[in-house]
Amino acid sequence: MYLCTMIINEQTWNFIRQHANDDVRKLALQGCKDAEVDLLMALQQIAGRQTAKKKLPTWVEADGVIYPPHLNMEQCSSEQTARYKASLITSKGDTYVDLTGGFGVDFYWMSQGFKHRYYIEQNAELCAIAEHNFEVLGLESTVRCCDTAAYLTEMDHASVVFLDPARRNEHGGRTYDIRDCTPNVLELLPILLEKADTIILKLSPMFDWRKAVSDLKYVSEVHIVSVANECKELLLVLHQQRVDRSSITCVNDDTVFKVFSTLENDVFSPGKQCFPSGKTIVSLPENDDLRYLYEPNASIMKAGCFAEIEQQYPARQLSTNSHLFLSSVEITDFPGRRFQIQSVSSMNKQELKSSLSEIKQANIAVRNFPLSVEQLRKKLRLKDGGDIYIFATTVGNNQHMLYICRKIG
After folding, report:
1. Measured between alpha carbons, how far is 238 from 184 in angstroms, rounded to an integer?
2. Cys-Cys link to 223, which of 13, 32, 235, 268 (CB 3.0-4.6 A)?
3. Which pTM was predicted?
4. What average pLDDT does the chain have?
5. Pairing verdict, β 116-121 and 95-98
6. What phi and psi values does residue 260 have, to the nearest 5 degrees?
7. What is the DSSP letter of 335?
8. Among candidates 383, 380, 355, 358, which has minimal Cα distance to 369?
């Protein structure tokens, strides 16, 4: 048992429950007259619980959960992404080990169904919080406060091992290479492969996933996970031996887009676009009724599987670097945002005047275009917002075009 440095007395718990929905900043200014109340701890718990309402709704329902400082709450997984990671474990096996336990959110959901569960974390305070919370949540587990590499040397064989290495250096700066993370998974890879059937690695979505796959060698699955079209996590699944087919799965809430590699098309090769097709639309043809425009979701944008979209849907890329698609029919299950094209205009003054004559405000996006959103908005003299969407891009022989649309759904 770990000595929890965050012991909360009954008076403090009562204060937390009484002010659970209050403004934390106002509470801090008001203070508390009851000397038995640990105000700083109470404010941390109230703020943590308010964050958890959206991020960890199941945990909020459990009375007595202790929340860590703000930074740990910001960095921990959401319940939604933790549940997704749990779904990657198709064979439960005997033992699950989380070598970078943190606040314990991923551990709680991913370890469900295993006979033995080991939470490893070098931060003693987080270990104490996790041990307390697992007891509150009814999850039997073994909590060990120690260094990841040190524990690995004595660890017995595990069915699944999970790591979420810290992505900041000793100066607090962000890192974008596996070698610069703590722990260094590349250094630990030989012993990880020796002692685990499956390794699940969580990385920042800012990482170059192709380089990560190339460095690690044994990756069989890549999962890029977005929530509400914001890219949240890059997940890599490794096995001792690479399977015949590797896959990349792009997830945005309930939308899943999956691509498999083959001998002819290795989507994991660094520097390659998934299934490059070379198709380009120079402009919107008058004899081809391409009335719909599509913007792939954030996970697909990160993956770069644009040509594969053309293979799975009746849509064509607007231009090589726009990452936008056109079709003559509405594709209701397209993995991204859908728009109906109202008009198309060049940057010619007369065309712009005609196309924008009744438009006072619009949402503007630029793709492979010489002007920024702010510069283009100023040039077009349009306010932000409304139900009109303008996509500015370059097509054909360096033609700068505006696609003026309304969003569908």
Report:
1. 16
2. 235
3. 0.89
4. 89
5. parallel
6. -110, 145
7. S
8. 380
